[in-house]
Amino acid sequence: MGILNVTPDSFSDGGRYADRDAAVAHGIEMRADGAHLVDVGGESTRPGAARVDAAEESRRVLPVIRALSAAGVPVTIDTTRATVAADAIEAGAVAVNDVSGGLADSDMATVVAAAGVPWILMHWRGHSQRMQQLAVYHDVVAEVRAELSQRVDAALAAGVSADRIIIDPGLGFAKGAEHNWTLTRHLGDLLSLGFPLLFAASRKSYLGSLLAGPDGTPRPAGGQRDAATAATSVLAVAAGAWGVRVHQVRDTADALAVWSATGRPGLSR
Ligand code: PMM
């Protein structure tokens, strides 16, 4: 899954694809580089980000979704809002990627159930302005698993069919670096819920901390965390992840090609 943030303020590619034509061209490029899906978002979720209103969010994403869909690129809509999701599906989006797992908007489950599209339910504890305060766990794996399981149950109760549900640990969302690494080491515990899992580590700040220079300065986002992203993405797929969500598709696709050619080590079949 290639990431297409049509926002002026994303943490890693902020502003680059706010222009509609540049966004569409980048989506087509990611598809050519090997993305099966292009995830279009119109609201930044970086820690501390202020919210935009629904009308502005739709204004940003809908023309891009229409153009990419018309070009044959399968698009997912990255939103927590039911109205934006409904409009995006009408514009051609084939699935909803909801970082709140249905918690931010109680109408989302109804929209997704009625449309019959896949729904990515990410583990989430609150909006970006306050999510770092919510990164408190006794046992991060057990708690994320239990909270994801509750979101799955709510989706099923709203009429979403089980074969349309995808889960996501939500790396960096109400999670510090150690939480992210612990979840990465224990993906099997989340996979035991029985749903496909999306893994989205791309360019996140814990990779910048891992790759900090000798003076402790984190490696900046931009393109400088892509090798680490590709490495962790391959490890996640080898552990059984269904998909990976990345900014720079080609490096991860190449790394996955190597993994495939060597017999998909790690994946129990
Ligand atoms: N992370 C971001 C945005 N959307 N969606 C899912 N399913 N999982 C994530 O971890 C996730 C997401 C963070 O911002 P980015 O778009 O710049 O990666």
Detailed description of the structure:
The protein contains ten helices and eight strands. With 269 residues, the chain is an alpha/beta fold. The structure holds pterin-6-yl-methyl-monophosphate. The site of pterin-6-yl-methyl-monophosphate has 19 residues, from strand 1 and strand 5.
Features:
269 residues, alpha/beta, six-stranded parallel β-sheet, two-stranded parallel ribbon, 8 strands, binds pterin-6-yl-methyl-monophosphate
Proportion of strand residues: 5-15%
What structural class do helix, strand and pairing data support?
Answer: alpha/beta
Shape: globular
Biggest sheet record: 6 strands, parallel
Bound molecules: pterin-6-yl-methyl-monophosphate
Write down how many β-strands occur, each being a DSSP E stretch of 2 or more residues. 8
H and E order: EHEHEHEHEHEHHEHHEH
Strand order of the largest sheet: 1-2-3-4-5-6
* Helix residue percentage: 40-55%
- In the predicted model, the low-confidence regions spanning at least 5 consecutive residues are none
Query: What is the gyration radius calculated from CA atoms?
Result: 17 Å
What's the N-to-C terminus distance? 23 Å
Query: Mean pLDDT score, rounded?
Result: 94
The helix count comes to 10
Summarize the topology.
Elements: E1 2-5, H1 20-32, E2 38-41, H2 54-70, E3 75-78, H3 82-91, E4 95-98, H4 108-115, E5 119-122, H5 140-157, E6 165-168, H6 177-185, H7 187-191, E7 198-199, H8 205-210, H9 226-238, E8 243-244, H10 249-261
Parallel strand pairs: 1-2, 2-3, 3-4, 4-5, 5-6, 7-8
Helix pairs in contact: 1-2, 2-3, 3-4, 9-10
This protein binds pterin-6-yl-methyl-monophosphate (PMM).
